[in-house]
Amino acid sequence: MTAPKQEKWAANNLSDINVKHICCIGAVFDFYAGTVKSAPELVIAIGMEWFFRLIEEPRRMWRRYILGNPEFIWLIIKEKYFNKSSKYRES
Q1: What's the predicted TM-score (pTM) here?
Q2: What is the secondary structure of the chain as a DSSP string?
Q3: Spatial distance between the Cα atoms of 38 and 23, rounded to a whole number of angstroms
Q4: Are 46 and 79 in a shared domain?
Q5: pLDDT digits 0-9 by tens, 52-66
Q6: What's the domain count of the chain?
Q7: In this structure, is residue 21 part of a structural domain?
Q8: Domain span at residue 43?
């Protein structure tokens, strides 16, 4: 299951199944199985693994990184500066 489907499934089903926690791990099984190439350590260390994955699988990843990342950043900005009633805001 891919992101964000796995996170949505976990949020929707947590109360219906007898578990205390659901962990969405993304591509970690693919990396361990060797079906997807992991980024070099230097690329990971400088925080550019997302770019490596985009270059390796552009047809699959472009929406996530080109469209999804700016949308995510906008949602964070909107929550922080425009949603004054959020239960997650610091006092």
Answers
A1: 0.58
A2: --TTHHHHHHHHHGGGSS-S-----TTHHHHHHTSSPPPPHHHHHTT-HHHHHHHHSHHHHHIIIIIIHHHHHHHHHHHHHH-TT-TTS--
A3: 20
A4: yes
A5: 999 999 998 899 889
A6: 2
A7: yes
A8: 39-85
